[in-house]
Design brief:
Elements (H helix, E strand, L loop, with lengths): L3 E3 L8 H10 L4 E4 L1 E2 L2 E2 L5 H14 L2 E9 L8 H18 L3 E4 L13 H18 L2 E5 L9 H11 L4 E5 L1 H6 L4 H9 L3 E6 L1 E2 L6 E2 L8 H10 L5 E4 L4 H4 L6 H14 L1
Helix pairs in contact: 1-2, 3-4, 4-5, 5-7, 7-8
């Protein structure tokens, strides 16, 4: 089955605790997003090298450098995004992952289509930098950004047209935006999907729940991925804190999200 990773920082503060949580859950790797409250792109080189050694000692991979690049207004200066990407690239090279997570910029609700061309241009500039550095940018579909719909995610990927831009399929985020992940989103995006976020959501309330407990069509989605011989990574991102509104949760709750996904498999 596909390699299994996870956002361990949702239930563990330090990297040592995150590694212990990942090993206890039987993961193959972890998402490097933050530890000790500090984003990975702000770590010193010494801290990054310590993380690489600690992961190797635990038999874990860094599956992705999970940045928030592009999770800002489209009008924000691009040079700040480029600088952040350069830092993320250095981390990715140091820990041995080809992947850096990005987003496609926040815009006012209802104006996403109007800003699509500008988002393609800005994200495309970052992708060209990724090409030079031999890393792959993973775009996550997310609420409030240009790439919040299957159609616009497809337009971003097709418009940039580079093997250094691939898509994360986040079923819960699509549910929260009013789309059906298996029957609507995945068929439109399958050719570009290389990564899967494991969480679910209830369409009526937007509340995040464990995979299989909401409206993300998980059984059908898994069947479609298998039929297409999907070879990417699945990464558990529970978001079960604050009553399903995101945020941290207890390690036991975090582990229950892993178990729910394995139960579906």
């Amino acid at each position: 089955m596909w390699p299994l990773s996870g956002f361990t920082d949702e239930a563990a503060w330090s990297l040592t605790q995150q590694i212990a949580l990942a090993r206890d859950a039987g993961l193959d790797g972890i998402e490097l997003r933050r530890a000790g409250g500090r984003p990975v792109v702000r770590w010193s080189r010494a801290a990054v090298l310590r993380a690489r050694a600690a992961l190797a000692d635990a038999g874990l991979q860094a599956s992705c450098v999970a940045t928030g690049i592009g999770k800002v207004g489209l009008g924000q200066p691009q040079r700040a995004r480029v600088a952040e990407l350069d830092r993320a690239i250095r981390v990715a090279h140091a820990v041995g992952t080809p992947y850096v997570r990005v987003f496609s910029f926040r815009v006012p609700a209802g104006s996403e289509n109007r800003h699509l061309t500008q988002a393609v241009d800005r994200l495309g500039e970052l992708v060209r930098r990724a090409e030079q550095a031999d890393v792959v940018l993973l775009h996550e579909n997310e609420k409030g950004i240009v790439g919040s719909s299957p159609e616009r995610c497809a337009s971003l990927a097709a418009g940039i047209d580079s093997p250094h831009l691939r898509l994360i399929l986040d079923p819960a985020n699509f549910v929260q935006c009013g789309y059906r992940p298996a029957s609507e989103a995945y068929p439109a995006l399958a050719r570009w999907v290389s990564y899967l976020h494991v969480k679910d959501a209830v369409a009526a309330t937007g509340r995040v729940v464990r995979a299989g407990e909401g409206d993300a069509e998980w059984p059908a989605l898994l069947a479609a991925l298998r039929a297409d011989s999907f070879v990417g990574t699945a990464s558990v991102e529970p978001h079960l804190g604050l009553g399903g509104r995101g945020g941290p949760c207890r390690p036991r709750t975090w582990r229950s999200a892993v178990d729910a996904y394995r139960g579906l498999l």
